[in-house]
Amino acid sequence: MIAFFGDERGTLIETVHIRKGRMIGNRPHFIPKLNCHGDSEDPREWLTSFINQYYTDNILPDEIFLTVDLGKDLYRLLNDVFKERFSIKNDVRFIHSHDEEEKKLVDIAYNNAKNHFRGFAEEQDQKKKALDLIQRKLKLPQLPERIECYDISNFQGDQSVASQVVFENGHPKPEAYRRYKIKTVTGSNDFASMKEVLTRRFSHKEYEDPQLIVVDGGKGQLKMALEALKEVGRADIPIVGLAKARVKGEFSDQEIEETEERFFLPGRQNPVTFGKSSEALHILVGLRDEAHRFAITYHRKLRDETSLSSELDFITGLGEKRKKLLLKKFESIDAIREASVDEIASLSSFNRVLAERILLQLQKVPG
């Protein structure tokens, strides 16, 4: 069952799962800026698109109850898509006219959508106010609806990687995150690494441009990133450096004071600061922290793969193809050590003898 409610701020689509006449679950989906009652928006178009996407990753029911009539042509189109996608023969029933019992369930779905919308819309209003504040304090020409943050990570100059994290309308957008393995830089050189990442990022014209770029660090890191942007011909994109809060005082002091997070702008001597309880600060610091986490996670994964690969090199009978299968199935040496002989032996082209040999090499006695 699918119902919706909204205004000019966005639309909340509520999906309610019914089994044997009873509600067993529901899920809200908020789409910013989609005005479901606006003259320019045809609900049949965006609702058809939503239904198609929603049932890509969810179980397809026999019947779908709707609060609007999509029309025979769109029903036929969705049916054809579902039959091919799920390899089914029977049609999915789309029900718009409801009896008394069905109408009660539809009303529940509609009221859920209305109540959930209020919560999402209030949060959206808070995010909008925070983005307005970011625009004013950082002197941005546009509201920073899309903000990108980049972080470089390396270990003793080895295996440098970078992360690109994206927030849209103040919320993380994980599907837009990107990871980069630095290819053209030897050793630890954050400027050259940043230049490579920004060059690769802005060579993709199909990606939407951000209204703000955040880099982790103070004036030095900001200067390097700004020069990198100039060299790739994108100095038009506003950029800011975010320097972490510092602890002031000595270890023996009774009270330790922490400085504010500082934001450095090109051409400005003194940093910009935000109130500690400011939603604007929470957005920007959350973005920086997420970029750092994403880079560290990727770097750790590459180090584990390298370490795992090197240990596997000493195992007789384990060629490159089998090694890749192990690396795909198990992400760390500890994961292989915890695996059973049967789990390893079940992999394609493996056998029990080889599985026991692998576990013995990794200092685990097979059981």
Task: Describe the secondary-structure layout.
Layout lengths: L1 E6 L2 E10 L2 E11 L10 H15 L5 E3 L6 H15 L6 E3 L4 H38 L8 E10 L2 E11 L2 E2 L5 E4 L8 H13 L9 E5 L2 H13 L7 E5 L3 E2 L8 E2 L3 E3 L14 H34 L7 H10 L3 H6 L2 H5 L6 H10 L6
Parallel strand pairs: 4-5, 6-10, 10-11
Antiparallel strand pairs: 1-2, 2-3, 6-7, 7-8, 7-9, 11-14, 12-13
Helix pairs in contact: 1-2, 3-6, 4-5
Describe this structure in words.
- This protein is of the alpha+beta class.
- It folds into 3 domains: about 130 residues, Nucleotidyltransferase, domain 5 (2-Layer Sandwich); about 160 residues, Nucleotidyltransferase, domain 5, CATH 3.30.420; about 50 residues, 5' to 3' exonuclease, C-terminal subdomain (DNA polymerase, domain 1, Orthogonal Bundle).
- The protein has 10 helices and 14 strands.
- Strands 6, 7, 8, 9, 10, 11 and 14 form a 7-stranded mixed β-sheet that branches. A 3-stranded antiparallel β-sheet has the order 1-2-3.
- It is flat, with a radius of gyration of 27 Å.
- About 25% of the residues are buried.
- The model has no long low-confidence stretch (mean pLDDT about 85).
